[in-house]
Write a structure and sequence with these properties.
Elements: H1 10-35, H2 63-83, E1 92-103, H3 104-107, E2 109-120, E3 123-134, E4 141-148, H4 168-173, E5 177-182, H5 198-201, H6 214-229, E6 235-245, H7 247-258, E7 264-268, H8 286-292, H9 315-320, E8 327-332, H10 340-356, E9 379-384, H11 392-407
Parallel strand pairs: 4-5, 4-6, 6-7, 7-8, 8-9
Antiparallel strand pairs: 1-2, 2-3, 3-5
Helix pairs in contact: 6-7
Protein name: Carbohydrate esterase
Domain 4-O-methyl-glucuronoyl methylesterase-like: 116-355
GO molecular function, one term: carboxylic ester hydrolase activity
């Protein structure tokens, strides 16, 4: 039998090795994508961490123990193992209205474009906020704040582009202010330049395994916008709903968990490390999200790649951190990647914490049918027919949800 030996040296070997490693990476990535489970029969048996049992095995039976002992423990576990720390200090914050139109939307709205400038030592971060306020009343208005992870044209202040992703006219027509900022102001959504933003203010975070990354930076930005709302007389800062889609929905949950000033949290199609349970191992998994988006979560989170059961928390506990405030989570029927059933179960498993506050959820035992929203509830849910997106259908239900809680009480 004849044999052939391939000998590659010098630049040829370097190129060969580089291409081989690239091929191995792509092959590994494709294998992981194909390995994602979409079969409920293959969901493993799992046990969720108990939100109402402290680290010392004490049962939480009242609000005081939850707020003074267990809630801080859970918040710390999410900081240390997933989302990273949330720095609360900075030297200065200032607000400037850079553009204003009191006759926007054919006279229905007052447009403010606000520059929020945060200074820490010799570094500055600028958040560009677009804000439409209804003109039909002199009273301060409740507001929906969108963490925009899509193109900036989706939140066009000039309204030359009108996107379902942010139907500002719909919000204004229903008596709500519409506000939005773009994630790139806080952390560009790319592994190579995500540090060009908030993390320039806090470079020490990059040296920590539990340091803040992009999702944390976006949530931090939402809180700085909240700082602005508290001093704008046209905005009712007690009625601010923070909303986000997909990765923005992960950030909205983390923002509401960290900052209790947000009155309502909306998490649309947020999936893995958003509203969906990790331990179900359905759709996107931790290893996949950490491989594709290594800049979103802290370094410690990589320890749980393919080891979901080792996590000291799961996402029902993130929702529980928002209690007693209302949370609305959603899915889309064709978006199994975001695990609709796991999202619903996450809400259901957070109910016991809301019960401490005597806030009873109206969610049925099993997920509702497609396009049958449950919004008259402290914990709300719908699974919309269609793709991974945020649409006017979603926003229409978010408005009903806010109406229910603001106008009829909780």
């Amino acid at each position: 039998m004849n044999s052939v030996m391939l000998k590659i040296t010098g630049k040829g070997f370097s190129t060969f090795r580089k291409h081989t490693f690239a091929l191995l990476f792509v092959t590994t990535l494709i294998t992981r994508i194909q390995a994602q489970n979409y079969d409920e029969r293959k969901v493993p048996r799992y046990t969720l961490p108990e939100p109402l049992t402290t680290s010392s095995d004490m049962e939480v039976k009242n609000i005081k123990t939850w707020e003074k002992v267990r809630r801080p423990e859970i918040l710390q576990l999410f900081e240390d193992n997933i989302y990273g720390q949330m720095p609360e200090y900075y030297d200065k914050i200032s607000y400037e209205i850079t553009s204003e139109d009191k006759t926007a939307m054919n006279g229905k709205a007052h447009l403010k474009q606000v520059l929020i400038r945060i200074t820490q030592k010799d570094k500055v971060v600028k958040i560009n906020l677009t804000l439409f306020i209804p003109q039909n009343s002199t009273k301060p208005k409740p507001v929906f704040l969108l963490i925009n992870n899509r193109g900036k044209e989706n939140t066009d202040p000039e309204r030359k582009v009108k996107s379902e992703f942010w139907p500002a006219e719909m919000l204004v027509d229903n008596g709500y202010a519409a506000a939005a900022f773009h994630v790139s102001d806080l952390a560009p959504d790319h592994k190579d330049n995500y540090t060009n933003g908030v993390l320039q203010l806090y470079p020490e975070q990059l040296k920590m395994d539990n340091g803040m990354k992009a999702i944390g930076a976006w949530a931090w930005g939402a809180s700085r916008v909240m700082d602005y709302f508290e001093q704008d007389k046209d905005i009712d800062a007690k009625r601010v709903a923070v909303a986000g889609h997909s990765r923005g929905g992960k950030a909205s949950l983390w923002a509401a968990a960290q900052d209790q000033r947000f009155a309502i949290c909306i998490s649309n199609c947020s999936g893995n490390t958003g509203a969906a349970l990790s331990r179900r191992q359905f759709g996107e998994r931790i290893a996949r999200i950490n491989t594709s988006f290594p800049h979103w979560f802290n370094n410690n989170y990589k320890k749980f790649n393919d080891k979901e059961d080792s996590l000291p928390v799961d996402q029902h506990m993130l929702i529980a951190l928002v209690a007693p405030r209302p949370v609305y989570a959603t899915n889309a029927s064709k978006d199994l990647w975001a695990d609709p059933t796991g999202t619903y179960l996450s809400l259901k498993n957070a109910e016991k914490v809301y019960a401490l506050y005597h806030r009873k959820s109206a969610l049925p035992p099993s997920p509702p049918n497609i396009n049958e929203p449950v919004y008259r509830s402290i914990l709300a849910y719908h699974n919309r027919e269609g793709e991974h997106n945020m649409t006017s259908y979603d926003w229409g239900n978010f408005i009903k949800f806010a109406d229910y809680h603001y106008k009829k009480g909780r």
